[in-house]
Amino acid sequence: MSVLSARLRASFTAVGVPVLACGIALAGLGAWTASGRAGSPPHVAVTKAYVYQSFGSTPETAAFFTLTNDGGSADRLVHIASTDTVAPPRLSEHHMTFSGGAYRQPVDSVTVPAGDGLTMTPHGIDVTVRPKGTWRPGEEVSFTLRFAQGKPLKIRAVVVRPGAQTDRLPRP
């Protein structure tokens, strides 16, 4: 009888565990679908937008956006335009060299994950811009963000000094 019991236990373990795991996954997918988010389109919004004031003879500066996506699928930021810049703004990513130097590398697009978002920083993804004229702190710069799936967003970014507190900026 113990041999039969051992075989039944082994069979249950071999079959039961995968069936149980599939049941749990199916229950999770059912809950996600019931919530109405399964397959829903992306819904991207900008909750913070600022641009650094440029200094001296440096022709470029950087803009930063905090993007949220409370939709059910990811989207990609694929293009940025501005009438307040000399050249079209460019998405870029900062990298460090082994010797401690930094450089920017252009990127074609960035993902805005579903149910999450993207926060641009001076040490990661940002937008390289060349201002028309001199921007002063408190001024606003207009941008249009275009996405692979969602509607374009027209926003205004506040000019701040590099290193300034940005946690109290008004919503764009």
Automatic annotation (TrEMBL):
Signal peptide: none annotated. Gene3D superfamilies: PCu(A)C copper chaperone. Keywords: Membrane, Transmembrane, Transmembrane helix. The chain crosses the membrane at residues 12-32. This is Copper chaperone PCu(A)C.
